[in-house]
């Protein structure tokens, strides 16, 4: 045996480099293509092999960990379980790859249950990472002992690297990639696929910035373009908080979202320490009211404390404001590299185009093999009588095969397929099916050859895939990018839903819409519930996306308005025919959930909230088709605690359906639940006295009436259906007849609400 002498410093240097690369490639740095570290990839692939798909039952985590250790990852079981747990935590992963059942830890830092107690299976998003893995789309390599194969990378139809982000510390290297919004990433990928010369600035028109699973407000948008260009910098994020006024002039700070990877329990503990140290003397109490609906930390202040100043102190002294590092270090061709956001997108695009190419070649081989067999079967069927005679006269299978090959010019595969053919394939119907299959296979072969020969065609497939995945996983943005919205518009159009959610219009969801409003950043948005309670949030909160915390069960929002855009009074309309005019000053910016009406009967509730003009009429219409029009000045101003006055006297069993304030409108447009419209002259509806019984006018429709829209020349409306469809339309008075005509095709759906955007 030859002995080689090596200086010890060189041996140590080389050994350390080998060790460092082992840690970098094998443990700490994710692959740019699928965004996974080896342990994560092995867990997901093992679960896929175990058939733990979303539609299957959960299995014990210990069983999964055992499979991963035994076949793919010969390291500690706790390390594997920790990685599995993290992929199931919705406060760590923007799009969790594992669905967990049991205790998987909490945002308070509570540890997960032992692996023998918890259960898991793959999430729907994880299936998109593994889709087509059996279609020769990626390379497989031997596992640690050579007993089986494992994928070197996943096909990753889902852009996991940017959407879920990654953090890791290696030897001399670290990576820190924040999570992003799926829809924004898909849009950026589509634009980059169409235009490879896209700049970072153009990419950032689609990707506003990180989108953390815990929400929060991103403050340094103006710096992000530079950081995303170089791949190094930081995101400054602060908690989402607002100030509420309490009775007696006191205030409280309510925190509803905290920065990413901040321990909530430690955050509250730090606040308490600051109070004891005398740095936050203004605080009288701190309560954690968080539940399954979300985070709610209440900081009560002393009587004379200024809520805004205390909040600024909290941002300064606690983790309510923090920097999350940006360090886009990833493995590209198995080497660690620092790239910008464009580089990350390009690597994913390159990977997916390679997957589409390999998948197309695989499908082409399968289609050509099948076409070869089908043509052999059709040849045999055309000469079936002779084929049967040749087979019957043969001594064994080998002789029969040789006769078929020589006499009918069949290949060995075709000959075996003919010999295996069942007698039912001899029917004319089966023969026709084979002819149709041949035509279909020839079309597929042409298509796959087209894909293989043209990158442009593969890009079209990629674009289609990104559009599909964006639709399949609708994901409203959770983190609000402060500078982006202010730079663009200074205000944003938001949608208010009956369940209390407020979301930007671009993130429209299939839920019952109450109103659509343009909310300025520095204004207040007020909402009134069916229980007669008023809730409000700052415009900045509305633009970030928020949700009302209702005081009562079965409570829902029925009306909303922006304070600066509202008149001095609003009118509340109740189901049992009461109307109430109330000055906004009586309740604006006061306690959340403040009651502003006293109901005459327990089953009564608010159905509509209207702006009160100084002049004009109020039109009420009932479920049974009664109408009443009377002057608004007949409604006396009322105090917060009163029940209002009778607006219309209802027949037994009837309820109020809707109401509109009228002023100088010559026509009404009636809209039915099946999407029809008709015009009615206001002159046909006489003015009566408040408190009268309604009149049954000759304006009935073929289907039930949903609402009426006062109109002069035109009106812009948003029509929302029961199943969440939305139609934006401009109603032109001159184009709407006095008879009922269909306008919106809702099919089996029903229109439930009309929102007037402009009249």
What does this structure look like?
- By secondary structure, this protein is of the alpha+beta class.
- Among the domains are: 36-155, Topoisomerase II, domain 5, CATH 3.90.199; 240-319, Gyrase A, domain 2 (2-Layer Sandwich), CATH 3.30.1360.40; 355-471, Topoisomerase, domain 3 (Orthogonal Bundle); 615-759, DNA gyrase/topoisomerase IV, subunit A, C-terminal (Neuraminidase).
- 33% of the residues lie in helices and 26% in strands.
- The chain has 19 helices and 39 strands.
- The strands form 12 sheets. Strands 14-9-8-17 form a 4-stranded mixed beta sheet. It has a 4-stranded antiparallel beta sheet with strand order 10-11-13-12, with helices on one face.
- Helix 7 packs antiparallel against helix 17 and helix 13 runs antiparallel to helix 14 (397-408).
- The protein is globular.
- The N and C termini lie far apart (95 Å).
- The model has no long low-confidence stretch (mean pLDDT 89).
List the helices and strands and how they pair.
Elements: H1 8-28, H2 38-49, E1 59-60, H3 61-71, H4 77-86, E2 98-101, E3 119-122, H5 124-130, E4 140-142, E5 149-151, H6 160-164, E6 166-169, E7 174-177, H7 182-194, H8 200-203, E8 217-218, H9 221-230, E9 232-238, E10 240-245, E11 251-257, H10 264-277, E12 283-288, E13 297-301, H11 307-317, E14 321-327, E15 329-332, E16 335-338, H12 341-382, H13 384-392, H14 397-408, H15 412-420, H16 428-453, H17 455-472, E17 480-481, H18 482-488, E18 491-497, E19 501-504, E20 513-520, E21 524-529, E22 533-538, H19 539-544, E23 546-547, E24 557-562, E25 569-574, E26 578-583, E27 594-595, E28 606-611, E29 617-622, E30 627-631, E31 645-646, E32 656-662, E33 667-672, E34 676-681, E35 705-711, E36 714-721, E37 726-732, E38 741-742, E39 751-758
Parallel strand pairs: 8-17
Antiparallel strand pairs: 1-3, 2-3, 4-5, 6-7, 8-9, 9-14, 10-11, 11-13, 12-13, 15-16, 18-19, 18-20, 19-23, 21-22, 21-24, 22-27, 25-26, 25-28, 26-31, 29-30, 29-32, 33-34, 33-35, 34-38, 36-37, 36-39
